[in-house]
Every structure is written in structure tokens, then in C-alpha cells.
Amino acid sequence: GVEVVVSDPTVVDNITVLDVDEDVDVVVIDAVLVDNVAVVDVEEDVEAVASDAPVVDNITVPGVDEDVDVVVSDAVVIENVAVDDVEEDVNVVVPDAAVVDNLAVVDVDGVVDVVVPDAVVV
């Protein structure tokens, strides 16, 4: 299944979910500007959650075969998050971050955890 939930948003620009064989969750709640969310070429398990986010620019998750979690919560400016060619296990959690510029997780075959708590990463 594909589930896209957008609740009370002010400006969500693009949400693109392409070529799915089950399990995509995109949840955007109370957003003030989430620019692009693209989930491309999925065969189960992608979850991108942006909650109460002022300004999340791009979230791109292409080429997944199970297990990608991207959670952006209460963020103030997260510019780009890209998770590339995944075959299970990527976690990107950015809680309450002020300014994360680029975050790229590229070509993963199992377990990557990126947690940026309260970070200023540019």
C-alpha cells in the first residue's frame, strides 16, 4: 500500500511517489513549507515523516528495496536529505534541528543510522 497523509499544511510543493510494490508512508503534518518529497522506485518499506516542520527543502529517497526511515520533526531549516540506492536499513532522524544543510546517505546495503540532535551542520 501507499499512504500519503498531509494534515493542516501551509505549502507542500511536490510529493512524488513512483513505481511502488507496497509500503510507502509519507506523512506531513502542520507543515510550513515542505518543498519536495520524492520517493522513487520502491519495493516495500519507505517512511518519510516531516512533522511541524518549518522549511524542509528536499527529501529524496530513490531506489529502495525495503527499510528507509526519514523522520524530520520540529525542524527549523533542513535543506536537502538524499538517501540513494538502499537495500534495507537506513535511518535518518533529525529531531529539533536548527539548520542542517545537506544530508546524503548513498548506496546502502544494510544499517546506516544518522541522528542529528540539536545540530548545526552546514
Notes on the structure:
This protein is mainly beta. It has one domain (2-103). Helix content is 0%, strand content 67%. It is built from no helices and 11 strands. It has strands at 2-7, 10-20, 24-29, 32-42, 46-51, 54-64, 69-73, 76-83, 90-95, 98-105, 112-115. The strands form 2 sheets. It has a 6-stranded parallel beta sheet, with no helix packed on it. Strands 2-4-6-8-10 form a 5-stranded parallel beta sheet, with no helix packed on it. The chain starts with a strand and ends in a 7-residue tail after the last strand.
Q: Helix fraction?
A: under 10%
Structural class: mainly beta
Major β-sheet strand ordering: 1-3-5-7-9-11
Radius of gyration: 13 Å
Mean pLDDT: 71
Q: Name the overall outline.
A: globular
What is the count of helical runs? 0
Q: How many individual β-strands?
A: 11
The biggest sheet amounts to: 6 strands, parallel
Structural features:
5-stranded parallel β-sheet; 122 residues; 6-stranded parallel β-sheet
Short structural description:
0% of the residues lie in helices and 67% in strands. The protein has 122 residues and is mainly β. A 6-stranded parallel beta sheet has the order 1-3-5-7-9-11, with no helix packed on it. Strands 2-4-6-8-10 form a 5-stranded parallel beta sheet, with no helix packed on it.
Lay out the secondary structure.
Blueprint: E1 2-7, E2 10-20, E3 24-29, E4 32-42, E5 46-51, E6 54-64, E7 69-73, E8 76-83, E9 90-95, E10 98-105, E11 112-115
Parallel strand pairs: 1-3, 2-4, 3-5, 4-6, 5-7, 6-8, 7-9, 8-10, 9-11
